[in-house]
Amino acid sequence: MDNDDDIPQLSSHTLAALQEFYLEQQQREGMKTSQGFNQYSIGSIEEDWQLSQFWYSDETASCLAREAVLAAGKGGRIACVSAPSVYQKLKEQDGEDFSVCILEYDRRFSVYGEEFIFYDYNHPLDLPENLLPHSFDIVIADPPYLSEECLQKTAETIKYLTKGKVLLCTGAVMEEQAAKHLGVKMCKFIPKHSRNLANEFRCYVNYASGLD
Q1: Degrees (nearest 5) of the Cα angle 121, 211, 87?
Q2: What are 55-103's pLDDT values in tens digits?
Q3: Between β-strands 76-81 and 98-104, what pairing exists: parallel, antiparallel or unpaired?
Q4: 68 touches 165 (CB < 8 A)
Q5: CA-based torsion, 108, 195, 189, 70: positive or negative
Q6: 136 bridge partner residues
Q7: Quick one: which of 194, 202, 145, 204 has its CA closest to 41?
Q8: 187: which of 47, 83, 94, 203 fits an S-S bond (Cβ 3.0–4.6 Å)?
Q9: Distance (Å, whole) CA 132 – CA 20
C-alpha cells in the first residue's frame, strides 16, 4: 500500500494561486484565438518574471499614456524605455497625433516591427544611428531593477533621447537617486500593477504634469 505521508502537499493558498495563474493563462490563450484579439492589449505578451517584468494595471497604463500624449503635444514623439505596457496603451489610441517607439530588452516585442528597438541598459548609448540625440518630446522609463546602477545607466539613455521631459516610474526607495541622476520629483499619482508588488512604486517627473 502506498504511503502518501512523505509526499509534499501544497498549501491551500499556494494551490489557489496556481489555479488562478493557470486560469488566467487559459483565458489569455482563448483571447488570442478569438477574432477580436488585440495585439496591443496589456498581457498579450505575458510577463517574464526572470526579466523583472511586471505589467501596469490597465488604469495605470491608460493614465500614463494620456499624460505622455499631453506632455508630448501635437505631433509629438514619445519613447518608452523598458515600459512596454505604456507603449501598448499608446498604440491602442488610434488617430492620436503622435509617434511612439519602444526600447526593450525582451525581443518578443519585436512583433511590433520598426517601432521596436532592442535595448540593454548595460549599454545605455548602444542605440541605432537613426535615434538622434534629444529627438523625443518625452521619455517614459521604468528601469527593470531597483538599483542605483540600473537607474544611473537608464538615466544616460533618457538624457540622450529627451528634449527635456522625463516621466520615470520606479520604486519609492529610489527617490533620492532619481533626483540625483535625472532631477525628477515624486508625483502624487501612485501607479498600480496587475499583480501586487512588495515594493511601493511611484512616478517622478521634471515638468508640470497632470499626475499631481
Answers
A1: 45
A2: 788 899 999 999 999 999 999 999 999 999 899 999 988 667 999 999 9
A3: parallel
A4: no
A5: positive
A6: 162
A7: 194
A8: 203
A9: 45
Helix (H, G, I), strand (E, B) or coil at 62: helix
Three-state SS for 113-174 is HHHEEECCCCCCCCCCCCCCCCCEEEEEECCCCCCHHHHHHHHHHHHHHEEEEEEEEEEHHH
Q: How many Å apart are CA 69 and CA 96, to the nearest integer?
A: 8
Distance of CA 29 to the CA centre of its chain: 22
CA dihedral 29, 35, 38, 44 (to 10 degrees): 10
Q: Which residue(s) pair with 81 in the sheet? A: 103, 141
* Cell numbers for 181: 541622476
Q: What is the pLDDT of residue 26?
A: 53
- For residue 98, the SS3 value is strand
- Cα(22)–Cα(194) distance, integer angstroms: 16
Neighbour count for residue 172 (Cβ, 10 Å): 14
Global pTM?
Answer: 0.77
